[in-house]
Specification:
Layout lengths: L2 H19 L2 H17 L1 H8 L5 H12 L5 H12 L6 H16 L1 E8 L5 H15 L2 E8 L8 E4 L2 E4 L2 H26 L3
Parallel strand pairs: 1-2
Antiparallel strand pairs: 1-3, 3-4
Helix pairs in contact: 1-2, 1-5, 1-6, 2-6, 4-5
Length: 193
């Protein structure tokens, strides 16, 4: 079973727990906080992975730090993750949880890259346009990359819609090179006269 499949199973369990509390969206935020801590803090990652600290001590420390901030079922879930030594999948679990929640609510997550920082009105207009195009309520994550020159790049799951000026220039360049190669080959095949 792939790492993502395992993470998705855990995320499915987490979503079921959140559903019992009627707090799927809130738990997404909390899962994101824990994933961010894991991603950004090498000390936290080291603590979770080190064999120098006994698993029971890790759980006791985590419970004392997280117990007041997060609901008991979520803290208990994290204890099971530690027991099963799946803490290396925390980032994938958060990603899978988000995907499962999006599927359940009919939302579509899109990553949008623009050559500039969009204002709130532009973001709302683009999300509305993408919602119509993708037949779902689009929640977009915006990124800035000046190298795309103009236009935009939209990623939805494994689909990429590249309407950037950079991509257009790349396609033009490829077409011109193919034309040059084709005309050069035609000239040489005629031979000397």
């Amino acid at each position: 079973m792939s790492r993502y499949s395992v993470a998705r199973n855990y995320a499915d369990t987490l979503l079921a727990l959140a559903g019992r509390e009627g707090a799927e969206e809130e738990w997404l935020v909390m899962a994101g906080e824990i994933a961010s801590l894991y991603r950004e803090s090498s000390a936290f990652r080291s603590f979770l992975h080190t064999p120098r600290v006994e698993p029971e001590e890790k759980k006791r420390m985590l419970r004392s730090v997280l117990g007041d901030r997060y609901p008991e079922p979520l803290v208990t879930f994290l204890m099971v993750v530690l027991d099963k030594r799946r803490q290396g999948l925390l980032l994938l679990m958060e990603e899978a949880y988000r995907e499962l929640l999006n599927e359940r609510t009919g939302r579509v997550h899109a990553s949008v890259t623009l050559p500039f920082e969009p204002d709130a009105d532009f973001r709302a207009e683009l999300e509305a346009a993408l919602s119509g195009f993708l037949d779902g309520d689009v929640v977009a994550e915006f990124r800035t990359d000046e190298e795309i020159i103009g236009g935009l790049v939209v990623r939805v799951k494994d689909r990429v819609l590249d309407g950037s000026v950079r991509r257009s220039l790349q396609l033009m360049r490829r077409a011109l090179l193919e034309d040059v190669e084709a005309s050069g080959t035609a000239r040489h095949s005629d031979g000397p006269r």
